[in-house]
Amino acid sequence: MRKLLAAAATLLCAQFFTIDASAANLIAKINLSTQTMTVIQDGRTMYRWKVSTARSGYRTPTGSYSAKWLSKNHRSRKYNNAPMPFSIFFNGGYAVHGTTDIRRLGTPASHGCVRLHPQNAAVLYSLTQANGLSNTRIIIQR
Length: 142
What we know:
alpha+beta; five-stranded mixed β-sheet; four-stranded mixed β-sheet; 2 helices; 9 strands
């Protein structure tokens, strides 16, 4: 009986505490090697965009993160009040956001954030709002 209860408790806990990308309705998958983002909604690839991630001397964290908070007109407190439109924060001060430096998209150019064309950042921001923070995953891999 104890084994049965322990197994049932383990199964119940696993349902509530497992963080799995497949549980998210919206996934933004960033590939550092190709400097691209693939946006997947409900299992379907919706968009593929060029991004800029950390340049030499900086780092973009790898891993799988839930979206933590949104800021439509954010400005960097750390980097000279730089504009970060349509920011989706996922790990401390790291965010996916728009950039005015669109000519550098597709190459490493940031201090660690994931930069997008402002129009693409607005689309991802809206999708995140519609799907909810807890249903949005940011996955960064090499």
